[in-house]
Amino acid sequence: MKLDTAQKRIIRSKVLGYNLVRGTAGSGKTTVAVNRSIFLKDNYCLYETDKILMVAQNDSHLQQIKETLHKTEESQTEFITLFSNQVDKVHLETIDNIVYSYFLEHRRKNKYNCKLIIKEEQYEITKQCLNEIKNSYKGLKVLNERYIEFIIDEINWIKDCNYIKLEEYQKADRVGRKVTKEQGPKRLLKNSKAREAIFNMMQLYNNLLKEKNLVDQRDITLLATKYAEDSKKKYSHIIADDSQDLTKIQLEFLDLLCSKKAYSNIMLIVNREKHLNQNGWITKGRKFASLNLDENIKKYSLNKKYGPSGQLENDFKSIETSQEQLDILNSCGDSKNNINNPAKLNEKYGEKGIIEMSNNTSPFIEKFQYCDLRHSRKYSFTRDLNNISELLVKSGDSEDVYSIEELKQLAVYSDIAAGEPILMNSDIEGDFYIPQHWLKGVKDCFLLKVKGDSMIEADIDDGDYVVIRKQYAAQNNDIVAVDLDGNATLKRLQIGKGRIVLMPENEKYYPIEITDNEINVIGVAVGVVKQKI
C-alpha cells in the first residue's frame, strides 16, 4: 500500500513521548504502526539495548502485524539508515502474553504459588461475598443475587482500573457498560451507597482469593505491573494497535514497560468504530488525560479509507454518482470505460486533479472556520456528518481529533436577523459541537444562525453561526443579540450620553436608536462559525 501524506507525517514524526492515532477500519492504522516501528528502529534505536515492543490484541491480529511487517521490510527503501540492519529490534507480542510473562517473572522472584480461578469458583466466591455484605446494606436493590453477573462485571472493572481506594471509585466516570433492566441498574451514581457496597464486596472477594491461594485475570495484570515497575527489562519504544480495548491497568502496565529515555515513544493506535472490550479505557465519554500519563500527548487522525488492494475506496466512487463529474468524464470519451480506467483519466486531468475532485465533492465532510472574537484567533476544522460529535482541528502542520468528551454541545437556533429585525425561532434547530477550550470561561451559550448582511464588515455573513454567551447586560462596543419587542437582531452596541444605538456593520443599513425600555439583551457574541466550501 502506497503511503499517503497524512500517514507519512505520523510515521516520520519527531514528536516523541505519547502519540495517539485514531482511524476507522481500512484507514491504514496497522500500516502506520508497522512503518512507524521501522522508522523508530532505523532512527531512534541508538544503543544495543534499545528495543521496540509492538502489541496486538490477539493471535490473529498479531499474525496480521507480522505479515505486514515482513512485507514492508522486504519492500522498504524509504527509511533506510545506518541502523537498518538491526532486524531483531522489534518484538511482537499480544497484550495477554506480555502481561503473563511478567507475571511469571514476579511469581518466580517472589516464590508465589497460586492458581488461576475458574468461572464457577468466581461465581461461588462472589455469591458468598454478596450474602455477607447484605447484612450491612439492608434494602439496597443492587445487592440482589439475580444481579450477580452485573456485580462480577463491576468488580472486574474496579480491578481493571486499579482503584485501591473507595474515593477513587466513588468519583470515577463509569462509561462503556451496557446492561438491560434484568441484568442490573442502568448506572451506579457517584458517591452512592451502591458503589460503597460493591467496593467493599470487591475487597472481601480479594481477601477470599488470597486465603484460597487463587488469582483472577485482573490480579495477573496487577502483579505483572508491580514487577514491571522495578524490572530492568524495558523497551525504548512501544506501539499498541487496537488500544481502544486496553484497560486502564493494561495501559499503565505498558507505560511502566517504557524506559522513558529522552527519545522514547509510546504510540497508541485506536479504532474509532470497533470496541470489543466494554472495560476498554480509551472510549467516548472519557478523557485520555484521566490516565495521568502524559499531558503533552500528540493526536493524529486517519480519515481516508483503503480497499484490500490498497487503493482509496472513494477515489472513483464519487465520480460515478456525481453528474458534474460524469459530464467531465464524458469529454474523455465513454464515461463507463473511463471510470474503470484511471490511466485514461489521469492522462487528461492528472492523478492529483482527480483525487482533489473526488475529495472536494464528498457529501459527508464539512469544513468550518471558528473566529474567536474574544482573543482574535481563527481555527480551521472539519467534521463528518455521520459523526458530528467528533472534530478534526488543524493546528499548523498537524491535525488533532477532538472526541465528545473534549467538546461543548451547543443548541442551534435559526433566523436571527443581521439585517432588519425578525422574530427569532424559539425551536432548537439542532446541536453543534465546539472544543471546550475555545469557550473557556463561557458557561451558558448557544448558536444563532445569521440571516442578512448588515454585519459583513465585522466578518459576520449571511448563513454564519454566531456563538452567543447568554447574559442580560452588555458593554459598549459589544456585538449583541437583542430582542426588540419580540424581534431579534444582531448589532454592535454603542452607548453614549443619554443615547443607546444598535450599529450595523454595513453602510447600507441605518443605526437603530433605542431607549432602555425598548432593548432586551439576549446575549453577547463571543465567536463565529463559518462554513467553508
From TrEMBL:
Xref: PROSITE patterns: UVRD_HELICASE_ATP_BIND (PS51198)
Residues of the UvrD-like helicase ATP-binding domain = 2-380
Q: Which Gene3D superfamilies is this protein grouped with?
A: 1.10.10.160, P-loop containing nucleotide triphosphate hydrolases (3.40.50.300), Umud Fragment, subunit A (2.10.109.10)
A Pfam cross-reference name: UvrD-helicase
For ATP, which residues are the binding ones?
A: G23, T24, A25, G26, S27, G28, K29, T30
What InterPro entries does this protein map onto? DExx_box_DNA_helicase_dom_sf, LexA-like, LexA/Signal_pep-like_sf, LexA_repressor, P-loop_NTPase, Peptidase_S24_LexA, Peptidase_S24_S26A/B/C, UvrD-like_ATP-bd
Alphabetically sorted, this entry's keywords are: ATP-binding, Autocatalytic cleavage, DNA damage, DNA repair, Helicase, Hydrolase, Nucleotide-binding, SOS response
Q: Which family does it belong to?
A: Belongs to the peptidase S24 family.
Name listed for the protein in its UniProt record? S24 family peptidase
Q: Which organism is it from?
A: Clostridium tanneri
